[in-house]
Amino acid sequence: MATDQGSDRRAERTPPGSEKAGAAERSPTETSVERVTHQDVGAICSLYKKVWESEAGLPTDLVKAWQPSPLEFTSWMEGVTYFAARRSGHLIGIVGCELRRGACRLVHLAVDPDGRRQGVGAALVTAAVDWARRSGAGAVWADPLARFQACGHLFLQLGFSESGVLHRHESGEDVRLFERVL
Ligand SMILES: CC(C)(COP(=O)(O)OP(=O)(O)OC[C@H]1O[C@@H](n2cnc3c(N)ncnc32)[C@H](O)[C@@H]1OP(=O)(O)O)[C@@H](O)C(=O)NCCC(=O)NCCS
């Protein structure tokens, strides 16, 4: 059910606390961030396919593991709360929030390569942090591959601190750890 909403546009950031603005108040080109529903599953799987197939040099097992089938993504949804970003009706970004023992891990963050550097990733992570706070989490953390430098910049810009590196941690790739205490 789409209960949590947020919105963001580079030139018109939504003021804190007003993220419940209704769809009717948004302009057609504005980015909205909402909880995903089962109706979104097909579009989400297509987005992941586009994102990971465009990342040159990624280990092939990761490319495969991060492109779920609709059935696999439905099972991911059982333990993770996902938010999707949309613009003009198109799903252009996604992030998952995995709440475990009082901390929220961000997973599967991805933005359509054609829609980057327009504030979509920041809007998704901001919505995820807001949701984690409302859910009582004491911290939000993420463990992107070190090769995803844009992601590192994004977390640092949003007030996360870098707390370490795990070497050759995932399919031989280094992983960076970021955390934001709430
Ligand atoms: C990381 C990712 C989600 C960022 O999405 P995005 O919508 O382009 O990010 P935003 O436009 O919200 O960027 C917000 C800030 O992050 C930083 N940033 C984002 N992309 C950057 C890049 N390519 N280089 C440097 N800084 C970058 C900047 O500080 C940016 O602010 P600015 O544009 O005002 O300078 C996107 O690049 C992506 O999907 N990458 C591939 C998958 C990935 O890395 N997933 C993360 C796994 S955890």
Q: Tags for this entry?
A:
32% strand; single chain; 182 residues; eight-stranded mixed beta sheet; alpha+beta; globular
How are the SSEs ordered, and which strands pair?
Blueprint: E1 5-8, E2 31-35, H1 41-53, H2 60-65, H3 70-76, E3 81-87, E4 90-100, E5 103-111, H4 120-134, E6 139-142, H5 149-157, E7 161-170, E8 173-181
Parallel strand pairs: 5-6
Antiparallel strand pairs: 1-2, 2-3, 3-4, 4-5, 6-8, 7-8
The protein binds coenzyme A.
Descriptive overview:
This protein has one domain: Aminopeptidase. It contains 5 helices and 8 strands, in the order ββαααβββαβαββ. The chain is globular, with a radius of gyration of 16 Å. The chain binds coenzyme A. The site of coenzyme A has 19 residues, from strand 5, helix 4 and helix 5.
